Prior knowledge:
Elements: H1 10-36, E1 39-41, E2 49-53, E3 56-60, E4 76-80, E5 83-86, H2 92-99, H3 118-131, E6 138-140, E7 146-148, E8 155-156, H4 160-167, H5 184-187, E9 219-225, E10 247-250, E11 266-269, E12 278-279, E13 283-285
Parallel strand pairs: 9-12
Antiparallel strand pairs: 1-2, 2-5, 3-4, 5-13, 6-7, 8-13, 9-10, 10-11
Amino acid sequence: MTNVYFTNNNRSSNFMKTLLPIVTLLLLVLFTSVYAEEKVLLSNNLDIEFVLVKGGTFKMGNTFAGAGFEDELPVHEVKLSDFYISTYEITQLEWETIMKSNPSTFKGKTKPVENISWFDAIGFCNVLSEKEGLTPCYKIMRNNSVTCDWNANGYRLPTESEWEYAARGGNESKGFMFSGSNDPDEVGFYKNSSKGMTHPTGSKKPNELGIYDMSGNVWEWCWDWYMYSYFPVLKANPTGVESGVERCRRGGSWAQISKSARSSNRLGSPPELKFNYVGIRLVKNAR
Length: 287
């Protein structure tokens, strides 16, 4: 940083009069550049970094000819509002700080937490929300049914459509098959590149929005019930069908082939089960 000194010398004074507008302009450009990244810290307890995903309309499903599975069809148009999504998968350090335990198989503070059920994931969202003085999104009934308050200001899991939109790069999408590239090795860890384990978050290239690990490393739980095909979406910000047997997970992992790490790929698992290849990423309303 350049030090600026003010003196009574007229020559110096004239120089400063010329310099100050330039410095002001440079600071404005710097501020605009930083702001344009749309990355903010929303969590007071964990300093979790979030990216603002500007809303828009996109084609959801297998838009990559011949590359996908039947449950990625039919391709359909989805409209979403603005939302925040965490830049990285939740790490073991972040999980342990809030939940006071670390269930992960592959230990490492900066590695993604795994070996957590869908119920564990929504529990984390509620506990973190409460610690931040926010309204929790989820209400868990005695029969283990769960409702979500979509207007709450707390943390939650992404819907399937929010997840895919963010993975594709939102309004900045360049149409890549994986999240940030057509080459899975550039953006994620999958079966042929992971050496049989998870890796520290943010180790690979981010996608167009600056989000890391949406292809590979660990699957990420989503809110929606998993169905074997898409139903017509008739409203903005869809939240999926009302009931089901399995909850969706997205993104592929260290244990699966690269095809599973495509942005449109989807899978479901019973919400009570735990796997050392499934973790969590957070979302928060922007409205």
